[in-house]
Amino acid sequence: MWKDNILWDREVEDNLKLEFLKWFEELISLKNLPVSRCFSPVISGQQNLNLHTFCDASQFAYAAAVFVRIEYSAVVHVNLLAAKSRVDPIKTVTIPRLQLLAATMGARLCKSVLSALQWDSVKQRYWTNCTTVLSWIQREELWSAFVNNIVQEVREQTDPTSWKYLTGVHNPADLPSRGCSAHQFLCIRW
Predict the structure, then answer these.
(1) In terms of DSSP H, where are the helices of the chain?
(2) Cα–Cα distance for residue pair 3/16, rounded to 1 Å
(3) Which of 105, 83, 88 is nearest to 154 (CA)?
(4) How far, in Å, are 1, 41, 85, 124, 183 from residue 52 at the CA level?
(5) Is this model's pTM higher than 0.85 or not?
(6) Residue 114 region, left (φ>0) first, then alpha (ψ -120 to 50), else beta?
(7) In what order do the strands lie in the sheet with 61-72?
């Protein structure tokens, strides 16, 4: 509606109205969505605790999600700790640059989680499905001003060697970056 310059006091018509009404009707199905909100950072017999931050972007939005992975007694528990997404800017930006914005969001979000939980020495891994972003973060070169400024922020907040490649189908941040219906969301193990 913003791109189409629809004024705030004008009734939305046609396809936009139908799309919104369909989305609104699907929201009721989310009442059946169980969300595990219990997280215990201290577990007896804990052997390994680390954070995994996933970043992704599409032509619609960019997103990051932070998960904690805890190993104890030969059992692995994974919990979503935080997630964030933003719609893409009005001005057209290339997918690699959007992926870089997602990486920045992921670095900030992970730092926020670490600060909130007061974890100083937790191992961190960052995941992206964009090899261009990996090369920007891991290689010491001068990039364009936009890329260079953002890469410097990511490098200040993370260890560049902690960034790894992950295919898009295995990236949990793919879902919030592309979006889906409420019915699709209920079928996906996120």
Answers:
(1) 14-26, 95-117, 131-138, 145-157, 174-178, 182-187
(2) 12
(3) 105
(4) 35, 15, 17, 6, 27
(5) yes
(6) alpha
(7) 75-87, 61-72, 46-57, 123-128, 163-165
Please tell me the predicted confidence (pLDDT) of residue 188. Answer: 75
pLDDT in tens, 45-77: 567 889 999 999 999 999 999 999 988 777 888
CA–CA dist 157, 18 (Å, integer): 43
Question: Whole-angstrom Cα distance, residue 69 to residue 66?
Answer: 10
Which residue matches tokens 């992206």?
Answer: 128
Kindly state the helix (H) or strand (E) to which residue 164 belongs, with its residue range. Answer: strand 163-165
Cα separation, 142 vs 128, whole angstroms: 21
Closest of 42, 64, 44 to residue 54, by C-alpha: 64
**Taking the CA atoms of the chain, what radius of gyration do you get in angstroms?**
19
Residue with tokens 């104890």: 72
The two beta strands, 46-57 and 61-72, are antiparallel
Are 140 and 186 contacting, i.e. CB atoms less than 8 angstroms apart? Answer: no
Which of 148, 77, 69, 66 minimizes the C-alpha distance to 111?
A: 66
Strand partners, 163: 126
Query: Which residue in 173, 185, 189, 188 sits closest to 57, CA to CA?
Result: 173
